[in-house]
Amino acid sequence: MRDDLLDSIRRELKRSLPPERYLHSLRVEEESRRLAEKYGADVHVSGLAGLLHDCARDLPDDEVLELALRSPCSRLTERLLKNPVLLHGPAGAVLAREKYGVEDVRALQAISVHTLGSTEMTAEDKVVCLADYIEAGRDFPGVDRLRALAEQDLDLALASALGCTIACLVEAGHEVAIETVLARNHLISVTDKTNCKAGDPPARELGEIAG
Ligand SMILES: [Fe+2]
Ligand SMILES: [Fe+2]
Question: Which of 46, 117, 156, 167 is deepest in the core (most CB within 10 A)?
């Protein structure tokens, strides 16, 4: 039953998405499942959300906006409403429910928050967000460090990934969504506690990656 649903979703995504986006979605699905198994998140929910995370990514801005405005999962600030590309997460959650028949709120939330992050991320949210950064097709400076961190600590790896995004946006002179900054700060506070117990301060790791 679950496999039938996944197969029909894959068929529809293949029809709807540009080829490269479809292949990226398959790789994020695979990486989400792998990370979910490693970190105790729900493997099916994570894979489903990974598969559908970018289902609204290539829609026209007005359609993304229309979908996102119906999303119960997120607060839409004025800044977000002016940047529809940042809304493809919440828009994708609405599309996943209405077009692809996904009812599991855990999967819908993971799709919704994958772009910006949040301070209340579940294990499934974190796994999908991180998988989006490190799936096998990704190639950017620092990705190998992120992949290595992903084998050690989910929170630290995701904090570092969000730090990379923030650093890139600052470097390019763009605004940084406050949700992403808050999500990173929250993850750092969590890893601080974890790593203090282990006697291994994370600040050095984060500094090396995020600059
Ligand atoms: Fe995305
Ligand atoms: Fe993606």
Answer: 46
